[in-house]
């Protein structure tokens, strides 16, 4: 069942347009990750979907209820959802009172509040602070208080706005674990925005990429990372090689692309004559000598031009008529005995070469 | 005695305080009564008004807040003059017979500190940042619950404002002099008594009252820092 349905959402603050043409469908029970650079509108979109503020235009249904025509239902709908913000927000009161807030707003009976608050604090490992002043806790602990405060209200949809940015690894792990468990056991639908690509990949069933105020691409994270639809998305998801070229032939179901005199095979059918080859650094393998048995369709010698360690990996730039960057593990780099000017063999599978039409042509 | 009159004044002043001189006690109690009552009434009026200004969007809101901030420095003699005219026999409230009574002084000080309390209430509530307001909304608070939560969250900042208002009331001399008339045993308070006794070269009483006034101001400051540390 579709739990959130948004079409053509637009939002401006004064003359600043933050969101435009946003279309989004969220299925009940899924974890959707929203990734994108800072300022791309992720937080604003989550606030609109959680009905904290209205959009300027567009259609939005939550739980199958049209929220644009019927503003009277907003409070009831909002009480079926919950949101955790990037900056830990706690109120000047005890941890207990902080966690109880949402349940008190809903007029829950006192003994139920007490039971659930204790349970929730237990789950985030903060039981011993139940009577402490929330403001005295560390940032990570405050964020866990904020998460418990949302969880005790049993949200059917949980919005997380960069919930673990600037948090210590323990708090991050606790929060991630609780969110995945909640999704798995209670079937809670989760929308999480993050600029941490690894987190998006780790948690989300499906990822949406936001670029400049709109959702540029949605799909399984594997697809977003390997087959980005545009250069901007490719750059954002950390593709090291975006190489312009032109389609010269099609052979045995493969597309042959020529880039600076070098022919490279791709498994993508040609989207245009002038294309960009999108190749992730980790898909490029380096070898000391020509491999005896190699399945990769692209196999050619090259010269190492630069070595840049980014622990635990090493970025290796190679030249072979066109320039490529390979990502190898530090250990593999050691085994290969890489040094600048050295001759290596490069292998690259055709299906790791994704083609997109060249921008601005 | 042939010592320095100022040093003698100090010595006598300490005596007056330690022996709880009836005149000193009476003036101190009246001062506290007038200013505390004025602060109470001002808070009763200014806090809800300040909250209204904060929570409701209307045209000219910014101008209202700026005006309030300008009125923080409202000259006390101007307030004294206006309240005097209002309460005098020819004024619209002459029938109340409030002129030269503690009641009139309370009214004058109330008027004096209302802008301060309103302005400080608005800024105390504005101190609740956007993320907190989003959080309250996201937690499912109704309109009324939102207002109550924000006020509760700003309680210490609002209390600081009230304490500052009391500090301004007890320390001012302009309105109580004009509206109260500094009548011995009826409307004489710490500040007007100090002014009068100093001009009459009655230093010891002035110094004694001055020490008390400073002690009250110090007490307010201690209370302020306690509140602000929350």
Automatic annotation (TrEMBL), chain A:
Matching CDD domains: ABC_PstB_phosphate_transporter
Sorted UniProt keywords: ATP-binding, Molybdenum, Nucleotide-binding, Transport
GO process terms (BP): molybdate ion transport; phosphate ion transmembrane transport
Segments forming domain Mop: 293-357
InterPro entries xref list: AAA+_ATPase (IPR003593), ABC_SmlMolc_Importer (IPR050093), ABC_transporter-like_ATP-bd (IPR003439), ABC_transporter-like_CS (IPR017871), Mo/tungstate-bd_C_term_dom (IPR008995), Mop_domain (IPR004606), P-loop_NTPase (IPR027417), PstB-like (IPR005670)
Domain ABC transporter, first and last residues per copy: 4-237
Known catalytic reactions: tungstate(in) + ATP + H2O = tungstate(out) + ADP + phosphate + H(+)
Coiled coil: none
Enzyme class: translocase
Organism superkingdom: Archaea
Enzyme Commission identifier(s): 7.3.2.6
Any one annotated GO CC term: plasma membrane
Location(s), subcellular: Cell membrane
SMART domains registered for this protein in UniProt: AAA (SM00382)
GO terms of molecular function: ABC-type tungstate transporter activity; ATP binding; ATP hydrolysis activity; phosphate transmembrane transporter activity
Predominant place of localization: membrane
Pfam families, per database record: ABC_tran (PF00005), TOBE (PF03459)
Annotated membrane topology: Peripheral membrane protein
The protein's assembly and partners: The complex is composed of two ATP-binding proteins (WtpC), two transmembrane proteins (WtpB) and a solute-binding protein (WtpA).
Similarity field: Belongs to the ABC transporter superfamily. Sulfate/tungstate importer (TC 3.A.1.6) family.
Family annotation (PANTHER family): AMINO ACID ABC TRANSPORTER, ATP-BINDING PROTEIN-RELATED (PTHR42781:SF9), SPERMIDINE/PUTRESCINE IMPORT ATP-BINDING PROTEIN POTA (PTHR42781)
Name listed for the protein in its UniProt record: Molybdate/tungstate import ATP-binding protein WtpC
Annotated organism of origin: Methanoculleus sediminis
Taxonomic placement: Archaea, Methanobacteriati, Methanobacteriota, Stenosarchaea group, Methanomicrobia
């Amino acid at each position: 069942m579709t739990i959130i349905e948004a079409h053509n959402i637009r939002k401006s603050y004064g003359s600043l347009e933050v969101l435009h043409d946003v279309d989004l469908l969220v299925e009940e029970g899924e974890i959707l990750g929203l990734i994108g650079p800072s300022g791309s509108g992720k937080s604003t979109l989550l606030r609109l979907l959680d009905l904290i503020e209205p959009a300027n235009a567009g259609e939005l249904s939550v739980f199958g209820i049209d929220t644009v025509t019927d503003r009277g239902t907003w409070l009831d709908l909002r009480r079926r959802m919950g949101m955790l913000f990037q900056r830990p927000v706690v109120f000047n009161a005890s941890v207990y009172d902080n966690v109880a807030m949402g349940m008190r707003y809903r007029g829950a009976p006192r003994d139920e509040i007490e039971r659930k608050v204790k349970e929730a604090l237990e789950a985030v490992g903060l039981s011993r602070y139940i009577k402490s002043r929330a403001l005295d806790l560390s940032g990570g602990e405050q964020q866990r208080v904020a998460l418990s405060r949302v969880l005790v209200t049993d949200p059917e949809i949980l919005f997380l706005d960069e919930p673990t940015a600037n948090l210590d690894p323990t708090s991050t792990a606790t929060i991630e674990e609780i969110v995945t468990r909640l999704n798995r056991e209670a079937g809670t639908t989760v929308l999480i925005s993050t600029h941490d690509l690894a987190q998006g990949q780790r948690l989300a069933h499906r990822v949406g990429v936001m670029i400049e105020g709109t959702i540029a691409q949605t799909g399984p994270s594997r697809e977003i990372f390997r087959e980005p639809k545009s250069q901007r998305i490719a750059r954002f998801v950390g593709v090291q090689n975006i190489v312009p070229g032109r389609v010269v032939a099609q052979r045995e179901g493969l597309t042959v692309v020529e880039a600076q005199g070098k022919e490279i095979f791709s498994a993508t059918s040609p989207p245009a004559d002038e294309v960009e080859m999108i190749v992730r650094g980790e898909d490029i393998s380096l070898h000391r000598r020509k491999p005896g048995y190699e399945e990769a369709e692209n196999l050619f010698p090259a010269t190492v031009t630069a070595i840049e360690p980014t622990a635990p990996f090493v970025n290796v730039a190679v030249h072979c008529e066109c320039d490529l960057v390979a990502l190898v593990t530090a250990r593999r780099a050691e085994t290969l005995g890489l040094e600048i000017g050295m001759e290596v063999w490069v292998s690259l599978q055709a299906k790791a070469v994704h083609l997109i039409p060249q921008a601005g042509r | 005695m042939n010592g320095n009159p100022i040093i003698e004044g100090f010595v006598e002043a300490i005596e007056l305080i330690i022996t709880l001189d009836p005149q000193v006690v009476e003036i101190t109690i009246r001062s506290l009564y007038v200013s505390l009552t004025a602060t109470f009434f001002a808070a009763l009026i200014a806090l809800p008004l300040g909250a209204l200004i904060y929570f409701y969007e209307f045209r000219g809101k910014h101008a209202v807040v700026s005006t309030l901030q300008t009125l923080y420095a409202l000259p006390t003699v101007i307030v004294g003059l206006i309240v005097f005219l209002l309460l005098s026999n020819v004024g619209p409230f002459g029938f109340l017979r409030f002129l030269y009574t503690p009641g009139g002084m309370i009214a004058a000080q109330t008027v004096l500190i209302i802008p301060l309390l309103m302005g400080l209430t608005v800024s105390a509530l504005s101190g609740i940042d956007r993320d907190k307001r989003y959080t309250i909304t996201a937690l499912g608070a109704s309109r009324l619950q939102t207002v109550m939560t924000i006020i509760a969250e700003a309680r210490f900042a609002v209390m600081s404002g009230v304490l500052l208002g009391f500090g301004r009331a007890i320390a001012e001399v302009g309105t109580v002099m004009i509206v109260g008339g500094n009548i011995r045993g009826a409307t004489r308070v710490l500040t007007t008594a100090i002014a009068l006794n100093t001009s009459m070269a009655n230093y010891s009483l002035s110094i004694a009252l001055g020490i008390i006034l400073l002690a009250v101001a110090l007490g307010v400051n201690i209370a302020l820092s306690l509140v602000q540390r929350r």
